[in-house]
Amino acid sequence: MIRVLLAEDQSLVLGALSALLSLEGDLEVVGTATDGEAALGLARDLNPDVLVTDIEMPRLSGLDLAGRVREELPGVRVVIVTTFARGGYLRRALDAGARGYLLKDAPASELAEAIRRVHAGGRAIAPALAEEAWGERDPLTDRERQVLREAESGASTAAIAARLGLSEGTVRNYLSEAISKVGAGNRAEAARKAREKGWL
Q1: Model pLDDT, residue 135
Q2: Mean pLDDT along residues 171-182
Q3: How high does pLDDT run on average in the chain?
Q4: Which residues form the HTH luxR-type domain (predicted)?
Q5: Domain 2-133 bears CATH identifier 3.40.50.2300
Q6: Cα separation of 90 and 108, whole Å?
Q7: Domain ranges of the chain
């Protein structure tokens, strides 16, 4: 049996995934979580074979969760299941250690097969995204991404500096670099463009 842990913040989707995967004779859903922190705790306790997670979740995103699992539980393989059909997200997921990346509109049989493939040591990537992911690289550093995310919410330079423990000048430098790298005219446009590419 392949032991599977599911992490998804929408209860209806979580229940449907659990029920569908439980119909597979070789898959056992050993736990479910509705936020990233809870999923990490369950992964530590249950040591599943495969963790299936969404990207956007409370407390710890699926990408951050994948990175933490790679560091702490290298034997647990991660499959991302998301609505984000963008190459930038796929690249970031792979960089975080995910072995699979599927879209939520894929048939349940495709998810089950992806879990089997990843468990066996392979990769499972949505075909529509695979080619796009190896095109344009994410130009942002982690710190530029962090500052741009804060700016996206409308925070002032001073507020961003206070929140991140940086000087206002440093924040302005990171924003300037990010704006330049994504080819935008201002911070709002930079955040929008980066979000569209899957870089935020």
Answers
A1: 56
A2: 91
A3: 90
A4: 133-198
A5: yes
A6: 20
A7: 2-133, 142-197
